[in-house]
User: Fold this.
Amino acid sequence: MSMQNRWTAAQMPDQTGRVAIVTGANSGIGFETAKALALKGATVVMACRNLTKGETAADAIRLAKPAGSVQVMALDLSSLASVRAFAGEFIRSFDRLDLLINNAGVMALPKRVETADGFEMQFGTNHLGHFALTGLLFGLLDRTPGSRVVNVSSGAHRAGRMRWDDIQSDKSYSPFVAYSQSKLANLLFTHELQRRVDKAGAKVTVTAAHPGWTATNLQTHSGIAGFLNPFFGQQPPMGALPTLYAAVGPDVPPASYYGPNGFMEMRGYPKRVGTSSAAQNQAGAVLLWAVSEELTGVTFLSETAPQPETAMA
Ligand code: NAP
Assistant:
């Protein structure tokens, strides 16, 4: 593989003329991803649930005098109405979409809370909202040569399993069980989206990334992890590198996954990394797609319904 050992944002190819969406771009890894793309010339739509935070973040990027531009658009992934409104406005405003970076996320909410549509918040925000967003924008991705999707997962996916009998944690809720399931779902979605893209003869490249341990606002609810952030967490510009490599790096194969190259993938420069075997379960990926279509009402690249027994085995 031609990936260099110390790939940085400085090595990103010129992005002039390209249009990117970064969800959750006002904070942490999403902010650094949006900034790096704009500095290289991209037009970046910062998709944020809080417009005030979004505009403050956009101003911070503008201060760095990017070759491209940033603009903020309202997107709350915990509301399907908001996802539909965002996608509608985006399609009216832009005639191309080169990069869809599904980055926004919430982690380890102490109590079970629901999205506007009654989904468990982590599954609803981290997976279902992004599934719906990707489906509603797929036509535009498909029409844009060289387009890519990046789903931001986590090392926590390794602890995850799909709880098909309680996917929304209605019967029992544990903050990290729900988080790791949602991050496993990000990888199953990556594989299944690429498989369907390929089967349809479309040209979109679907990738995934994780930032290791990066000190951001994400660990707010994680007690000890939040406390240890300043000692062990790498800084957000480093944490954004696997996402950026997956988005614009050279020689990125379909359905590939990138993370940091250091000890236990906790920190470092981007490299290709592996997944848990649960993330490679094709029957599970097919079932998740069907469940996601059913729950969100967004259907795309559809096939005939799967048999749940094969995936639950
Ligand atoms: P962060 O600083 O908390 O950023 C998360 C972003 O997501 C914020 O902009 C947040 O908006 C946004 N968001 C949350 N719920 C949303 C919703 N319903 N609609 C729209 N946006 C929403 O955390 P981060 O570390 O950069 O996280 C980015 C991604 O990296 C997540 O997918 C996370 O799972 C993944 N990740 C992070 C780590 C790590 O060590 N940091 C490790 C593994 C994976 P607000 O500012 O309005 O809350």
